[in-house]
Amino acid sequence: MQDVLFQYGVEFPCGGIGECQGCRVRILQGTLPVTPEQHNELAPEQLEAGWRLSCCCRADEDLTLELAQWDAQILIDNTSFGFVPREGLGIAVDLGTTTLAAQLLDLHTANVLAVKTALNAQARYGSDLMSRINQAVTNGKRTELKQAIRKQLGELVSDLLEEARGNADRVSDIVIVGNTAMHHLFCGLNVDSLSQYPFIPTDPDEKRFGGGDLGWSAVADAQVRFVSCIGGFVGSDILSGVRACRLKESVELVGLIDLGTNGEIVLGNRDRLVCCSTAAGPAFEASSLSMGMRAMTGAITQVRVEGGTLTCRVAGGGKPVGICGSGIVDAVAAALDLGLIGPRGKITGGGTSIVLAEHVTMTQQDIREVQVAKAAIAAGVRILLDTLGASLGDLSKIYLAGAFGNYVNRESAHRIGLLVMPPSLIHPSGNTALLGAKLALFDTDESPDNELVRSIQHVPLNAHPKFQDIFVEEMTFPE
Predict the structure, then answer these.
(1) Domain match, 30 and 154 both
(2) Averaged pLDDT, 81-100
(3) Of 21, 95, 236, 462, which has the most beta carbons under 10 Å away?
(4) Which of 437, 435, 434, 410 minimizes the C-alpha distance to 424?
């Protein structure tokens, strides 16, 4: 049932191995047998009510299922930028772990002619990077992961041309950016080295293909290039963000933080740039939360304290069914202000969960997931500042990239210690990866990103002697 249900928005956070409840569906008509995996994961009352783990089911008859429907909020880019006109059409692609965003441009005017977005089809193999890497390394799915994303991007390219009624023969360049795992899986590279410490890319360099080599018949003569990675899990999406935010041109100390499925940080100025990646994403993408979901209909997206109680805003205005990343940050911040959570993250009064709204709770484990994620980001910032010989007070601006960064409340993020710098320094910057990919379409040099890559020092956090101590310090919430 995975292939069919994925198209309708059902996710498989654990990769479809029956170890989570992310793919629950409810039977309205028909029958699905209860497997041992479902007995282990679902409570008797859930099974009795018709709930099943769809990854463990095979449909042998027509079924009517209850699914949560939504319009996915996928970030695109409409930023104006300077460019040198050229002839033809170009396509910029942000290949994210969770979502895809692609734009077709007239290279003479830089006008966007068409936009397409989608959920990454690889998500059926797991919602996070390590799940997919494990599928590739342990379960021999590397070829399937490569074919899935190449096929999907090829269809996205065709859809762009159809929407704009563009002449496919005029497409000369396609630029793709993404994190290191997406780079390796799309390019068909071995990901074994990304599955274990010290997480060194097999080949971080830019890779070029002909459209025909990828099976993209509509743009067979176009040049397709996947931009270089920086190091570790810091990929070309961050390199493009550095370029889009012009970090290398800054006199002041500035930074770029991308809080997605994986968290990446770049700090520095025109003299020196340093970067790192952190395993922070699952909580902020909500896939590791007990009632986590993306920012879709039914998701709690905001939580505030009003009249001494928690008040929630629900996407779509209907009945809440779960909570998204921005919502969980708000919820923890509000619960801290009300004294429902102590500085060490423990729920006060001996409880094991906090009721946020009807049928939606935040558990002790959810809070711990947030603590781990925010501690990793905060520790990364501190270590990069230490590497630069700088302090928090030296920062003049932080660009916050990605969908989560665009929607998270900066005051709440500061309250829980996720973003330790003053909220006034934080500037939500949208999809900087896609903007950087569009800039790359106008490159005149053969390999313009090579010099920028060499100017950025990658700092492996796991190898840093102070990381564990700083990480533990950052686990507590600010008083």
Answers:
(1) no
(2) 93
(3) 236
(4) 410
pLDDT at 160 over 60: yes
* Residue with token string 């708000």: 330
Q: Do 113 and 197 fall within a single domain? A: yes
User: How far apart (Å, rounded) are the C-alpha atoms in residues 29 and 127?
Assistant: 29
Q: What b/e readout covers 440-466, taking b as 16+ CB neighbours within 10 angstroms? A: bbbeeeeeebeebbeebbbbbbeebee
Q: Which CATH number goes with the domain that contains 189?
A: 3.30.420.480
Residue 21: per-residue pLDDT: 62
Convert the pLDDT of each residue in 202-260 to its tens digit: 999 999 999 999 999 999 999 999 999 999 999 999 999 999 999 999 999 999 999 87
- Could you tell me if 16 and 55 are in contact, meaning their C-beta atoms sit under 8 angstroms apart? yes
What DSSP letter does each residue of 406-449 carry, written as one string? HHS-HHHHHHTTSS-S-GGGEEEEE-HHHHHHHHHTT--SSSTH
**In this structure, what token pair is assigned to residue 17?**
């191995």
Q: What is the rounded distance in angstroms from the CA atom of residue 193 to the CA atom of residue 428?
A: 33
Spatial distance between the Cα atoms of 390 and 383, rounded to a whole number of angstroms: 10
Distance, in Å, from the CA atom of 407 to the CA atom of 357, rounded to the nearest integer, reads 20
**pTM of the predicted model, to two decimals?**
0.83
Q: Angle, nearest 10°, between helix axes 325-337 and 364-388?
A: 100
Check whether 20 has a pLDDT greater than 60.
Answer: no
Q: What's the whole-number average pLDDT of the chain?
A: 89
Confidence (pLDDT) at 57: 83
Which 8-state DSSP code applies to residue 219? G
Are 40 and 141 within one domain?
A: no
Strongest mean pLDDT among 164-173, 259-268, 330-339, 446-455: 330-339
Q: How far, in Å, CA of 467 to CA of 170, rounded?
A: 50
